Structure formats: structure tokens, C-alpha cells
Amino acid sequence: MAEIRIRNLHKQFTDFTAVKNSSLVLEDGKFVVLLGPSGCGKTTTLRMIAGLEYPTSGQITLDGDDVTYLRPRERDIAMVFQLFALYPHLGVRGNLEFPLRNEGVPRIEIDKRVEETAAILRIGHLLDSSVNGLSGGDRQRVALGRAIVRQPKAFLMDEPLGTLDAEFRELMCVELRKLHDRLKTTTVFVTHDQNEAMALADHIVVMDKGEILQADDPHGIYNFPATLFVARFIGRPPMNLIGADAPVVPGDTSVRIARRNIAVPRVDATSTQVVLGIRPEHVRLCGSDEGCLGGRVKHVEYFGSHWVVEVETEAGALKALADKSARPEQGLQVGLRFDTRRVVLFDAGTEKLLA
Ligand code: ADP
Ligand code: MG
């Protein structure tokens, strides 16, 4: 068990800044996902926590102890690279024993931990098998077992499901989450895939260009994105973002869009350039003389349980969800009704959520 803290962590590669003065508390026992586009500094951050890379400045503590410049094996943290990697010439037992033999753990302790790990992963019956004949799921369990058997203070995983096909990824996501629920070992998991992040995380840390933009639970990240980048990056189809025509001041309960007053939750900040955000599932189609904005159906996409309807309005193209029963015809004149409680406002200048 471990709480990991990073303070003003900074990593400069000659003339390129990979991680910018980032601070973060990774709470004991939580599953934390670092999420962001390729090149945003996720791997560099993880490698600094692991000790595979030293920061240019800043500090990393593990349960209060400064580990910033300790070597990887002095930190008691297990880095899981690709879950699939197994030694083919060793059996299941040999693969599980390997990390412990490497650390010089006594024989009797090795046997005990291998048995415990096999029980946790329900692979006890496979201990004396070769890894070559195993199913994909069992191979993954053995690979995970190699990290668990060390009983580290924390697990670090860098896109461990990256090479798997979609169906297997989902299966392994569920396995990883169940395992974490049982072991409660602090886990830092890196991915660029928001679905993986949403499925796994207690906390999501969204990064872009070396900076931490938001750290929150999945609900907070989805419903109250801290910046316009987070709003665009999280959720498919993405949040509708509409520039308003007039400033807002504290106390306002509407914003001016396309010469209409659109109801919003009570504003308590000032913004000269405000952007209204609303997710497609909080926009409903209604009659052309109802709703807060009108427009023409431009495009319809089928998702089985619902349609995603793109409507061309005076405020630009907006997406709404429609009930699966009736397919809205292209060209149809419709109204859009916003669920006012779900509207969020951003300042276009700072790109931040209005307080
Ligand atoms: P991510 O894992 O989010 O895709 P990385 O942490 O791997 O991003 O990389 C962040 C940025 O730092 C990238 O632009 C990458 O090219 C750069 N970078 C990473 N490692 C090095 C290095 N050893 N030398 C120079 N630049 C690096
Ligand atoms: Mg990476």
C-alpha cells in the first residue's frame, strides 16, 4: 500500500519540455489513470515514478519518503510493461517464481507467495503446466501474477492492453478492475484510450502537452471538464461547444446565442467571451416551434440503442441523441431542447470552466 505524491515535477529533454511543473497526489489504494493524447508526457511521468528516468526538478515521495533519485529496485514499485510477456521456456510456476528468485527471496517464502498469487488469480490448477498451451486469458493472468507475486507497494502500467484486440481488451479491463478491488494496491495506469480510462479509474488525470489539466473521478471529468481541451477530448460524440454573442456577469441565468436567450445554471463569474458546453445526450429533438434553438437535420448516425443526429443551426452544427424508435429524416426542420441543468460554461480566453 502506498500514497505517491509528485511535487512540481519537471522533465526537460535538451530543448523539449516533456513534463511541466506537475503536482499530483495519488491516493493510497486507488486505481489512477493517466490519460492524454500521444506525446503528452504520460510515459515520461510514469518512468519518473518508476525511477527509470530522473526529473530535471521536483520531487516524488512514496508514503512520505523521498524516492526522487532512488534506483527502480529501491522503490518497491512494480512496472508492468506488456501483460503478455512471458518466458516460454519456463512453466507457469517458473514464470511466477522468476521475479522473486531475482530478488533473492528465500525458497519457502517463494513457494508461499506463488501459491497465494495463483489462488488470487484462480490459476492454481495450472501451476505445473507449460505456458505455451495456455489460453489468452490464462496467459494474461500469469503475466499479471508476475507483478502481483512481488507484493509491491504500487503497480505502474504503461498501456498494458495496447496490443490486444478489442474484445480481449474489454475482458482484461474487467479482470484488472476486479483484481484491484481485491488487492487494493495503488495502481497508476497509462492510456490514450478514454473508454479504458472510464472503465478502470477511481481517478483520471488528463494531460496535454506535458501539463496536468484535470485530476478527478470519471464523473467529474465527464460532467465538469476543467478546460475546453478536456471537454473535446472526453466523450464520443464530443460535447457541443457554442460561442455566445454577449458577455456574462454573476447572477445571469441565460446566455445570448443566435439572438436568443438560452437558459443556463446561475452564473457566478464574469466572462466577456463565453462558450456554452452541452453533451449530445442532454440535447433532445422536439417540434420545430419548440426548444431553445431550431435547425435542419444534416446527418443521422445509428448506434443501435439510439441515433446521433447532427442538426445545422444558426449557432453551428450541433449533435443530439434521438430515441431509437423514429429515425429523423435528413432535411427535417426540428427544434433542440437543452437540459439546462447539464449546461456548462467556459471562458474562451482562458479556456477554463467558469467557476
Ligand atoms: P506519451 O507517453 O504521452 O505518448 P511521452 O512521455 O513518451 O508521451 O513523451 C512526451 C514527449 O517527450 C514526446 O514528444 C517525446 O518525443 C519526448 N521524449 C520522450 N522521451 C524522450 C527522450 N529520451 N529524449 C527526447 N525526447 C523525449
Ligand atoms: Mg507513452
UniProtKB/TrEMBL annotation:
<dbReference type="InterPro" id="IPR017871">
    <property type="entry name" value="ABC_transporter-like_CS"/>
</dbReference>
<feature type="domain" description="ABC transporter">
    <location>
        <begin position="4"/>
        <end position="234"/>
    </location>
</feature>
<dbReference type="Pfam" id="PF08402">
    <property type="entry name" value="TOBE_2"/>
</dbReference>
<dbReference type="InterPro" id="IPR003593">
    <property type="entry name" value="AAA+_ATPase"/>
</dbReference>
<dbReference type="InterPro" id="IPR013611">
    <property type="entry name" value="Transp-assoc_OB_typ2"/>
</dbReference>
<dbReference type="InterPro" id="IPR003439">
    <property type="entry name" value="ABC_transporter-like_ATP-bd"/>
</dbReference>
<keyword id="KW-0472">Membrane</keyword>
<dbReference type="InterPro" id="IPR027417">
    <property type="entry name" value="P-loop_NTPase"/>
</dbReference>
<keyword id="KW-1278">Translocase</keyword>
<keyword id="KW-0813">Transport</keyword>
<dbReference type="InterPro" id="IPR047641">
    <property type="entry name" value="ABC_transpr_MalK/UgpC-like"/>
</dbReference>
<keyword id="KW-0547">Nucleotide-binding</keyword>
<dbReference type="GO" id="GO:0016887">
    <property type="term" value="F:ATP hydrolysis activity"/>
</dbReference>
<keyword id="KW-1003">Cell membrane</keyword>
<dbReference type="Pfam" id="PF00005">
    <property type="entry name" value="ABC_tran"/>
</dbReference>
<dbReference type="GO" id="GO:0140359">
    <property type="term" value="F:ABC-type transporter activity"/>
</dbReference>
<dbReference type="InterPro" id="IPR012340">
    <property type="entry name" value="NA-bd_OB-fold"/>
</dbReference>
<dbReference type="GO" id="GO:0055052">
    <property type="term" value="C:ATP-binding cassette (ABC) transporter complex, substrate-binding subunit-containing"/>
</dbReference>
<keyword id="KW-0067">ATP-binding</keyword>
<protein>
    <submittedName>
        <fullName>ABC transporter ATP-binding protein</fullName>
    </submittedName>
</protein>
<dbReference type="InterPro" id="IPR008995">
    <property type="entry name" value="Mo/tungstate-bd_C_term_dom"/>
</dbReference>
<dbReference type="GO" id="GO:0005524">
    <property type="term" value="F:ATP binding"/>
</dbReference>
